[in-house]
Design goal:
Blueprint lengths: L8 H8 L2 H13 L16 H9 L8 E7 L5 E7 L2 E10 L2 E5 L3 E3 L14 E4 L2 H12 L8 E6 L9 H12 L11 E5 L3 H10 L3 E5 L5 H7 L8 H14 L6 E7 L7 H10 L5 E7 L13 H13 L3 E4 L28
Parallel strand pairs: 4-7, 7-8, 8-9, 9-10, 10-11, 11-12
Antiparallel strand pairs: 1-2, 2-3, 3-4, 5-6
The structure holds S-adenosyl-L-homocysteine.
Amino acid sequence: MRHLPALTVSELTDALGSRARAMETLKWLYAQRPLPSILPSELPGVSHRVWTPFVERGAKLVLPKILERQLSEDGTTKYALEFNGTSVETVRIPAKGRSTICISSQAGCTRKCTFCATKELGFIRQLSAEEMVAQYLLARSEDTPDQPATNVVFMGMGEPMDNLDEVMRAVEVLTQGPAPQLRNMSVTVSTSGVLPGLKRFLAESKASLALSLNATTDEVRAQVMPQTKTWPIKSLLDALREDAQRRGNKRDYFIEYVLFGGLNDTDADADRLVALLEGIPSRVNLIPYNPFPGTGLQTPTDERVATFHSRLVRSGVITLVRSPRGREIAAACGQLVLSRDGAGFSPVS
Ligand code: SAH
């Protein structure tokens, strides 16, 4: 049985016997601040006659317990949340006029990227669509009117393409009206490059896609992302190129590129990257490596980052350097699960 907040309008319509009641339920849910811990016994706009049996049949509101809330100096908030004894992390990143909620799709991760702290957890379990949307709902309930939570990125713990049915449902629910009705382009699913899932996502979803490329040759990429042996760079970029052609360039593709000092940050890498992205309407996000102990990987110098950046820009590639947000609370990319002192890992049940 599916539960709120992951029911679609049509499922709610079936359960409550009318579309108007489905809409009232969603409007009510997204107007609650603070969030209720359970579904109420009565709901304004929905007759008692249908609401009571709905709740009695076992309909629930899935919400996490907040284990910890850490606020960074730059305004980023990292939540340690618990669903049924499983801990996950969610981050709210405020920016001018909006906030982005970074949600987890798995507890731990099915992938083994050497530079990412989440891999130390191994794979714990898949998160349900309820648990993904609940992360958004919770983080959104504490946003501010001048920085509303209008954007979602699936860039927390986990590989979304290894849990795609649930991720697709979460995307559908996040973008449905009357609430929260996020724009498809404001919801971004990020993948390490799991080709079968990537292709299915591109064919079936209108949301934005981010590909964590992180290298320009298969040899270097395989060192840090072992799955490259199964799905080489060319196969991933060809999938984006074909999708762009099919859709008449209607979608932007975010290319995430973590810069590791001395490994993938040379001028030759920058030039190869430009060539690789030919024919793909892409936006490159350069992420200087957020260090984590024991990887042997280096953070590049600021000068290297600037040179790499300007080389891409001069070649006409739209490129941003992502300054680390919330690094001191280990909320930045690849730091989810590191404890505050950076030496150990937060408890996971
Ligand atoms: N599995 C998905 C989503 C989670 S990772 C994916 O790989 O895209 C989200 C982003 O953080 C990815 O782009 C990843 O390359 C980046 N990342 C992981 N570890 C990092 C680190 N230590 N420093 C900087 N970025 C990192």
